[in-house]
Design goal:
Number of strands: 4
Structural class: alpha+beta
Largest sheet: 4 strands, antiparallel
Radius of gyration: 14 Å
CATH architecture: 2-Layer Sandwich
Number of domains: 1
Strand order of the largest sheet: 2-3-1-4
CATH class: Alpha Beta
Strand content: 25-35%
Distance between the termini: 26 Å
CATH topology: Alpha-Beta Plaits
């Protein structure tokens, strides 16, 4: 079943577009890490500088190792000046899913 990691990002006013693009690029890279299954990147309709990223990993160990390896990457460094506060990260177990289907419109 794996684990779900939720990243919450708050971008500075006027930097939402650039911060979003960097975040997308980071998660393109995540696809290469061991244990990566997939992700959703959500943008707040009322605040385009507020992003929620939900990623699915085969194990907590895989998710934590990818974070450790990627923490000093150039893209993470590039994202820092766009942040209005430190990103939040929480790891979850899936307890229930009922008729949840996502149709991507990206």
């Amino acid at each position: 079943m794996g684990v779900y990691v939720v990243w919450e990002t708050w971008l500075k006013p006027g930097r939402a577009s650039e911060g979003y693009d960097i975040t997308r690029a980071i998660w393109q890279d995540m696809r290469e890490f061991k244990g990566y299954i997939g992700h959703f990147l959500l943008r707040d309709q009322d605040d385009p500088g507020h992003l929620l990223l939900i990623s699915h990993w085969e194990s907590r160990q895989d998710a934590d190792e990818s974070k450790r390896q990627y923490a000093s990457s150039q893209k993470v460094v590039e994202l820092q000046p766009h942040l209005s506060r430190e990103r939040g990260r929480t790891v979850y177990d899936l307890k229930e899913a009922n008729n949840f289907t996502v149709r991507a419109s990206v």
